[in-house]
């Protein structure tokens, strides 16, 4: 399946000055057909495409579990630096979820390769095949994009060559919680239930503390649709958790995303069932020690930076933490991505002489 640039963009009903495009995906291997993905772009991307404004590169942002794209300040940051900004709501997530879908459900993270590849193709057609791209992933999106780039590097080197960097925001690289949850017997139990009842919900109490720390209706400063990102999250199914654990085990054996990677995370974890002031200045979703431990499995050019007082989504942190996060990205773009891009462009020009 392929897509064509230049048609199909519609106003986004959630964000002003944004446009969306539906990407048909056809039959769902997990039995919830039809499925689609949704590509979102800032309206200014059109001006960049027609050549009226310079393009430094493009960004494709991939959300996490119980999430969708609403991160306008992140788009503003990249747009101010000359990047055409895009985001994708994956199948059964956010703008792409329909009534017949189990929210954020898949039995194999590699299913997302389809929409990510089509999005990459569409962006390349719009901004130009010579424009370099940065992939950004948050939480589960960080795991998904890392595994995708590893497969893309082996299976489609030409398409992988469009990507110059991977930005990971608190990627979900291991299963948090008690060590017993990561033992072989529990792993085999998850796999067994997933094989016969993939949409069965895991019996666990979901905390709303993180959602309360973010949303403006509670203790936070951010406005987003609680139908697409519920305060306490969507239920976790056995099939989805088995897919995540399979992806994490693959990563633990060592992968190579094939580009420089920047991993941002909080400096501490604070698991809590109820909101408190500590919730605002820690990762209450993942164990940051696991992120630190497994980041080295992403490849050979990985920088990991702990952000003091950051939340799980470092770009939704309290002001001083998110400001540092943006400074770290700015430094990475300036000293790692830009020199690598310029060197690559020089090499391509010399090869044509």
TrEMBL record:
This is Serine aminopeptidase S33 domain-containing protein. The lineage of its organism: Bacteria, Bacillati, Actinomycetota, Actinomycetes, Mycobacteriales. InterPro entries: AB_hydrolase_fold, Hydrolase_4, MAG_DAG_Lipase. It comes from the Bacteria. Gene3D superfamilies: alpha/beta hydrolase. Residues 55-198 form the Serine aminopeptidase S33 domain. SUPFAM superfamilies: alpha/beta-Hydrolases. Pfam families: Hydrolase_4. It comes from Gordonia namibiensis NBRC 108229.
């Amino acid at each position: 399946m392929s897509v064509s640039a230049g048609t199909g963009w519609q106003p986004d009903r959630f964000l002003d000055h944004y446009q969306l495009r539906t990407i048909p995906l056809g039959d769902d291997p997990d039995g919830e057909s039809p499925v689609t993905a949704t590509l979102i772009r800032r309206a200014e991307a059109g001006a960049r495409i027609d050549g009226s404004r310079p393009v430094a590169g493009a960004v494709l942002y991939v959300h996490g579990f119980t999430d969708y794209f609403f991160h306008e300040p992140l788009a503003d940051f990249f747009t101010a630096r000359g990047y055409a900004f895009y985001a994708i709501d994956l199948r059964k997530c956010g703008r792409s979820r329909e009534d017949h879908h189990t929210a954020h459900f898949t039995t194999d993270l590699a299913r997302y390769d389809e929409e990510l590849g089509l999005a990459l193709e569409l962006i390349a057609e719009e901004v130009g095949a010579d424009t370099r791209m940065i992939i950004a992933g948050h939480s589960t999106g960080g795991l998904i994009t890392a595994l995708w780039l590893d497969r893309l590097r082996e299976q489609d080197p030409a398409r992988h060559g469009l990507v110059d960097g991977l930005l990971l925001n608190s990627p979900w690289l291991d299963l948090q919680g008690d060590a017993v949850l990561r033992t072989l017997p529990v792993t085999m139990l998850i796999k067994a239930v997933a094989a016969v009842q993939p949409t069965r919900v895991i019996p666990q109490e979901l905390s709303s503390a993180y959602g309360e720390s973010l949303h403006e209706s509670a203790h936070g400063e951010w406005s987003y649709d609680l139908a697409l990102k519920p305060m306490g999250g969507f239920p976790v199914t056995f099939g989805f958790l088995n897919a995540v654990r399979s992806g994490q085990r693959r990563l633990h054996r060592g992968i190579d995303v094939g580009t420089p990677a920047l991993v941002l995370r909080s400096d501490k974890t604070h698991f809590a069932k109820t909101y408190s002031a500590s919730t605002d200045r820690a990762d209450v979703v993942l164990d940051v020690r696991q992120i630190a431990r497994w980041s080295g499995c992403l490849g050979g050019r990985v920088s990991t930076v702990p952000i003091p007082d950051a939340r799980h989504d470092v770009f939704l942190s309290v002001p001083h933490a998110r400001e540092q996060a943006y400074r770290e990205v700015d430094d990475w773009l300036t000293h790692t991505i830009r020199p690598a891009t310029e060197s690559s462009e020089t090499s391509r020009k010399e090869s044509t002489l």
